Amino acid sequence: xxxxxxxxxxxxxxxGIVAAATQLLRExxxxxxxxxxxxxxxxxxxxxxxxxxxxKDGLIDAVAEHVMATYVSGKxxxxxxxxxxxxxxxxxxxxxxxxxxxxxxxxxxxxxxRGNGAPSPATVAGLDVLRRRVRRLAAAGLLRVxxxxxxxxxxxxxxxxxxxxxxxxxxxxxLGLGEAMLDAVLTxxxxxxxxxxxxxxxxxxxxxxxxxxxxxxxxxxERALMAEWLHRSLAHPTP
Length: 239
Fold this sequence. Notes:
- The chain is an all-alpha fold.
- It has helices at 2-28, 35-42, 46-53, 56-80, 86-103, 105-112, 121-139, 147-166, 177-189, 201-211, 220-235.
- The model is unreliable at 1-5 and 193-197 (pLDDT under 50).
């Protein structure tokens, strides 16, 4: 019982710190979220923050997860219920992501101020959702590049679009930039027009790679060798 109470108390303190940091972020901006300011707002000593979160990056991760929790949850649910059109699903997710970024500029500034270590758990969760959407494109025979390249291109373009728009005065933002950027990326990664499977060598190789892990009768070594062949083929695409 004592252990349960101690755990509950620790969780309550942690939640209070995250709530205080989130309030500072919303009211005073990313620069206000310092260890000292958060400790004072939460009514704790600074060492408590380091004990619970490890360092400032850990605190930033917790704040990002707190702010993005509802968004990522809804995004994951939407990703798990496909409409039957993987391109339309990707567009829907892209628009939601850009809109969230424009609605939460201080969170993006806070994440940008984070150290250069591993990506935040919130970012990883968002990438997992995007990865599932890209996998649907590949499984439909729509990709001309491998899944990882497509994932990174979409992710980079999305973040770049958000940061570019946030760098403009709100009344001067080109709200059509997001759609234009996505169209440019899709032109580069899609094998053919949306929802029309492509039978070129590259598209077939990408599609085959999506089912390779589930092929029966092969050893792990044989699957690894076949995956290497596919990767080498895609690294030297047919003109």
